[in-house]
Specification:
- This protein has helices at about 1-15, 20-25, 35-50, 55-80, 100-115.
- By secondary structure, the chain is mostly helical.
- Helix content is about 60%, strand content about 0%.
Length: about 130
């Protein structure tokens, strides 16, 4: 909840969301973005209701989430190595191994996206 709330608050602060004006408000008593936290709690609860829809719905949501996460990770890694940029490594970096590990990670992601696109339990015969 904390990570999602922080990310949502940052997006609302930058005006990148439809409800930014509501989600960006800071509670005067607590000094916390209470609206953002409650929004994340409600949305997590609504996603939790998918348990009632069955395993297929949960599998579909998981597949879409994992695929989107892998694509979101791959884009900046690819941009880092494929295009000219002014990236300056921080105090901890992989040095020479940065490029081979980046290439391996980017090559591994399509494999995993494909892997997670298949059903977790095969059903060779359709249910009657």
């Amino acid at each position: 909840m904390m990570g999602s709330s922080m990310l949502l608050f940052a997006r609302a602060r930058d005006g990148a969301l439809l409800l930014s004006s509501i989600l960006y408000r800071i509670n005067s008593f607590t000094g916390m973005p209470v609206n953002t936290v409650w929004f994340v709690i409600v949305m997590a609860g609504l996603l939790g209701l998918l348990v009632c829809a069955g395993a297929g719905a949960i599998d579909a949501i998981s597949t879409v989430s994992i695929t989107a996460l892998y694509v979101a990770y791959a884009i900046p890694m690819f941009a880092r190595f494929a295009f000219d940029n002014d990236f300056k490594p921080g105090p901890f970096n992989l040095g020479f191994f940065s490029l081979p590990i980046g290439i391996t990670a980017i090559a591994f992601m399509p494999f995993m996206i494909l892997r997670f696109s298949f059903p977790t339990t095969p059903t060779p015969t359709p249910p009657a």
